[in-house]
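Let us walk through a complete example step by step. Step one is to write down the protein sequence. Step two is to encode the small molecule, zinc ion, as a SMILES string so that its atoms and bonds are unambiguous. Step three, shown after the inputs, is the structure prediction itself.
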Amino acid sequence: MKAMVLEQQPGRLISKELPIPVPGPKEVLIKVEACGVCRTDLHIVDGELNRPKLPLIPGHEVVGTIVETGSRTHLRRTGERVGVPWLFKSCGVCRYCRQGNENLCEHALFTGYTADGGYAEFMTANENFIYPLPPDYDSIKAAPLLCAGLIGFRSYRMADETAGERRIKNLGLYGFGAAAHIIVQIAVAQGKEVFAFTKDGDREKQEFALDLGASWAGGSSDMPPKPLDAAIIFAPAGSLVPKALKALDKGGILVCAGIYMSDIPAFPYELLWWERKVLSVANLTRNDGYGFMEIASEIRLHTEITPYPLKQANAALDHLRSGRLKGAAVLIP
Ligand SMILES: [Zn+2]
Ligand SMILES: [Zn+2]
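Step three: the predicted structure of the complex.
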């Protein structure tokens, strides 16, 4: 099969011909139809996340069809279309797993990081950690749901759950890329008012946010017209933390959604005072996956994608790095 492989960090992906992997016990072999390109892939290729398996096939927003099942597989069958997310497998026995926090698992494997992912024609995955997809999304459009959508949803749900009775009405989204463009649609459908923050002066992304239902869009240095009950930072820039705190109302909640962020600059305590909270989101649980797929089947989410042939994965990563992409890049084998 054809695959794009990372052999060293930092590095470029190399196009290779590899044997089709064989599914082990509880695993399935998936013929990849589409694989989204996530910012995390960029952090892996660039060496900011520095413990990958090597050589590695990246990619954790995978949509494909099961073409073979391994031994002791009983949940999934051939012909079924499934999605593979970032959490490839959790151990099920560590104290985090036993508490229902498998996203914090000590021994987890992550798709396209510590296990081979979907920048290939085929991949294997554990049948317990993959999801059937709502039928009315075609595979290319569904790919960004598997990480941008899912991790975005965990961040969004964490803000809601932390707010509890107080309820979030005004929500800020910092960094208007693949995740924010999905979450804005859910937030608006659930009656929230969304304020979108892009790089200062990025008119095109601001227009895009307004088109998708944001009621206001501006640069990250701008103050929103109303104080925010919560904000989610999707961009990997620590400098956004004090900016977002400044825009939060008393008791407001700030969720940092990324797996990697540059250093957060020092800021006056006054910005955190009045019970403002700063939280981070790590990975996802299967519960998030099922919850999100349910919402994706209720609300018809529009995903803005730019398709690339698999062998142009390096170009897709370059375009993500330079901020040229509107929505999400998706590789097609
Ligand atoms: Zn565990
Ligand atoms: Zn991702």
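Step four is interpretation. The two ends are 10 Å apart (CA to CA).
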